Amino acid sequence: MSSATTLKGFKRDGRIVIVGASLAGLRAAEALRDEGFTGSLTMIGDELGEPYDRPPLSKQVLTGWVPAEGTTLPRRRDIDAEWLLGVPADHLDLATNHVRLADGRRIPFDRMLISTGVRARPWFVEAEAALDGVFVVRTREDADGLRRAMAAGPSRVLVIGAGFTGSEIASICRERGIPVTVAELAPAPLVGGLGAMIGEVAADMQRAHGVDLRCGVKVTRLEGDAQGRFRRAHFSDGSTVDADVAVVALGGIRNTEWLRDSGLAVGVWGVACDSGCRAFDVNGLVTDDIFVAGDVARCPNPIYEYRFISLEHWANAVEQAEIAAHNMVSAQADRWPHLSIPTFWSIQFGVNIKSVGVPTYADEVVVTQGSVPDHRFVAAYGYQGRVTAAVSFNNAKWLDHYRQLIETAAPFPPPCPTPDQPADAKPVPVDFPGPTLLAQGATVVVTGHDPGERRVTAMRQHR
Question: Domain FAD/NAD(P)-binding spans what residues (predicted)?
Fold first, then answer.
C-alpha cells in the first residue's frame, strides 16, 4: 500500500483471511472492523463451533465450576465475516495469494493473518494414546471427557508432565480427593518455565498436598486391559503404577506444518515475524501481506536484545492480534510495534503463581521478598546483571514494580522495595533444562539464530 488512496480502497474493498479462529483470530477480526476495514473478512478454523477460551479448560472446567460449553469467547462486536470451520488449511501459496483447505477449496486474499496456535503434544505410541482413559487437554472435548472421567471416581490419575497444565491438573485431583501420580523427566515441576529453584518449591508444594511426584523418570509404556482401557504405566526406572486415567501434559506443538513449503520462515518454535507482526520469508525478508499473532508467532523483542520469543500466553495473543490488525490496514509510518512485557498466571494447590517478563531469559534468580517456606514470596530473574523477569507466589501486588525494573533495564539483583527481604537473599544460577525439556514445560521460549534453520548458502564465484 504505497498511497493513501490505495490504502483507503483496500480498507473498503480488500480481502483479508484469518487462518486460526480462536482467541487471537477473533480479537484480530474485531480490531479490523474497529479500524474501519469494511472489506471481505474470512475466518478459517479446524474446529467446529464458535471460538472459545482455553485457559479455563485446565482450571474451571475440570473443577466443574464452568461447563465446557460455557467457555465461548464473548463477542465485542459483530465482525460480519464468512466462517469456514471444521476444515483446516493445508497450504499457503504466496505466488497467487491463496490458502488451500484440506477439502481442496482455494480461498483468495489480499492480506492474511496466521493465528493457528498450538495443539497438544500427543502420547508417542498411537495405540497406547487411543486407550480408553488416556487424555490430553487442549480442546473443549478433551476437557469435558477428562472431567467426566474424574467425576467417575478413578482409583488413581497419572499425569505425565509437570509443567503448568500438568501441575494444575494434579492440583485439581487433590482438591477432589483423587490419588494422583505425576511423572516428570526433569528434576522438578515447572523447571522448564521457571528454573530449578522455583521447581524445588513446586515439588515441595505437590508432595505436601499428597501428590506421588516422581521426577527424573520417563513413562515408557501405557498398558491397557483386554477391553482397551488404560490400567498401568511403566517407568524408565523399572517401576509401575496402576491407574484408571492418564493425562498427557507434555506441552504443545505449534500448528505450522501446513506452511512448510510456503516460503515463510517456519520452524518448531513458530512463524518468525518482525515486531510489527509481519512474517519473514526463508531469506529473512519481510512479507508485507502476511501477518502472524498468538501462540504460533515468533517475534523479536527489543527488551530482550531482539531475541525471537515464542509465547503461549492469553494476554499476549490478544495484544499481538490487535497490533497485527492495526498494521494490516495502516500505512508504514502509522504502524505499531508489539513491545509488551509478557504476563502469566496459574493457580495450584491454593497458591496463586504470577509472572512478569521472560523467566527463561535469565542466568540468575534471587528471592527478593517474602518467605519461600510459607509459599508467599517474589523471585527476581536477571541476565548479565539486569532484571529480566519476576515470579510471585501469593504476592502479586508487587509485580508492577518489577515490570518497571524490566522496562528500565534495572541492575540485578534489584533492591527490595519492602522490609520483608530475606536476610540471606543471594542470587543462584537459574538452571534451566535442555531444549527438549524446555519445549515441553515452558510457556515462554527465547530463541536466537539456530544453525539448523539455515536454508540458504551464499556461494562465492571464483574466476
Answer: 15-321
